[in-house]
Amino acid sequence: MAKHQFQTEANQILQLMIHSLYSNKEIFLRELISNASDALDKLNMLVLTDPNFKDVKFDPRIDIKRDKDAKTLTVADTGIGMNEVDLMNNLGTIAKSGTKAFLENLTGDQKVDSHLIGQFGVGFYAAFMVADKVEVITKKAGEEQAYKWISDGSGEFEIEPAEKEGHGTEIILYLKEGEEEFLEEHRIESIVKKYSNHIPFPIFMDKEKYIPAKTDDDGKEIEPARTEIENVQINSANALWTLPKSELKDEDYISFYETLAHSNEEPLKWMHHKAEGAIEYTTLFYIPSKAPMDIYRVDYQPGVKLYINRVFITDDDKELMPTYLRFLRGVIDSKDLPLNVSREILQSNPIMAKIRNASVKKVLSELAKMMKKEPEKYDTFYKEFGNVLKEGLYSDFANREKILELLKFHTLNSDEMVTIEEFIKNVDEEKKEIYYLANKGSIDMLKHSPVLEKFKARGIDVLLLNEEVDTIIFPMVTEYKEYKLVPATDAKFDESEDEKKEKEELAKEFEGLAKEFKTFLGEDIKEVEVTTELTDSPVALKVDKDDPSYMMAQMMKQMGQAGDVDEPAPILEINPKHELIKKLKETSDQNLIEDAAHVLFDQAKLFDGRELDDTADFAMRLNRIMTKAL
Length: 630
Ligand code: ADP
What we know:
By secondary structure, this protein is of the alpha+beta class. It has 4 domains: 2-233, Heat Shock Protein 90; 240-384, Ribosomal Protein S5, domain 2; 408-490, Rossmann fold, CATH 3.40.50; 497-629, Four Helix Bundle (Hemerythrin (Met), subunit A). The chain has 22 helices and 24 strands. α9 (350-373) crosses α10 and α21 crosses α22. The longest helix is centred in the middle third of the chain and has 24 residues, at 350-373. The chain is elongated. Bound molecules: adenosine-5'-diphosphate (ADP). Adenosine-5'-diphosphate binds at residues 31, 35-36, 39, 77, 79-82, 90-91, 96, 123-125, 169.
């Protein structure tokens, strides 16, 4: 008998299960049945496609056995089974991609954590919520030797050769004191109905059947009433997505979601669609009500399963749906794909591409419907997944317009968030320009940006984009329908002859001060420009036309793309109508002008969401100015 240690992460999960006060312990059965169903799925595919398995009998069933005397509950399947290596790899380690995120998110607060457990989908280890010892007896299809895996969850497990008749796996739970409810017929049956009614394989269990007393014609008892044990199927075992919508109730969809997504939270929405045309396929997609923990990880677990004519093919293909829809959970099933598709073939398969394209369109149009008809639900969706959806703006060019229409924007002039369709109602129909300001920071901070003063003065509205993803994506989005998207900093407004003249005069008048500023600030700025676009602020920063924006330059730096090149120096704009600038022009105190130039430049940087190079220098100069003023 060989003893082995659990991998660290596996042990952490295990300890959590053993000590968890998770109120929803019953889900252990959902997890074990779901593993059994996966094992049947895997064997089904091999038998149909792999010549090595052509003699293996596929007789799919899951059996739940209760033994009240021994206090054991057994879940057995006739699926693929495991050999010694599989047992080592599968039931001693955790390969799941979300594990790290899950463990990092644990707080030690039972309430918070138990919620996370529900989100995570705990798998096999959930057995230890109700059992203090677990035995797994299993034989891999096509192999001779069976094995037994045993653990009491104390950090070690043992594997030894064993006897077992057919292939498949039997999981025996030695129930903890106080968990006897999981031996009750009704309890088990109701859990199975709740979570596993629509897995595609039958689940059997022994049930007591009451046989009434037999009487003769005179009413005399000839056989007393008794109970008989009957082995019966307790789930409906129809692949839910294959049923017509009209036969399905909300509860059916919800419970199927719970099995599929290993979640206890109701989905926000589902979309069930049967396509009948050149290509026949069925899709059932769910939008979860909460983002999965791994949503921003590169190694996220995709949530869409592919079936070919009800035979499970894969649940681990990130290409089935585009990454910006990675929050979807669900099923794609088509008769028209070849069963023996490999992953590479799947990716270049034209039928798959058509199904994918049509599915994306369908999901986007359902989202649009939800936005109009169920605004509150849509807000929940948008809060959880809006930023993920935005990624589609650059990755799915063909659907860019539709995705833009699904976004909600803060704007300079409105308190409520608006859609782009609402926004363009107020856009100048001659210029057809949509202005936006994309910068990290609060919306309030963006609203006070000096860049917006020229818009405020003209009453023109501006989209305010304050998420990090906005600063990366929006520079790439240059149009919507016949409208151009223009960064607020690049906006140009027509000037009357008088205005032009005034500007020229002011530029001349303040030329001296501008030169002094440039001398004191040196290479930190490209040039100083006199502007008439500012109203309230004395200064503002502007990026030269062909230079990348500050955010872009930061990004490139982070990704190591800029090499040793420094970010481009900005242009400092000064407002000749501002008191401060006017007074600076009049003074002959060169030291004061030097300090003011630096302090004003730093101020402009702060408004632009930039960091100061030298905070101590800023404070020192500011203090010197204040001292002079007193
Ligand atoms: P998950 O199912 O999310 O991968 P689990 O911890 O539940 O994680 O299971 C780990 C692995 O153990 C599974 O991926 C599978 O390979 C294997 N396994 C679990 N139960 C069975 C079973 N009944 N038959 C065959 N393999 C199983």
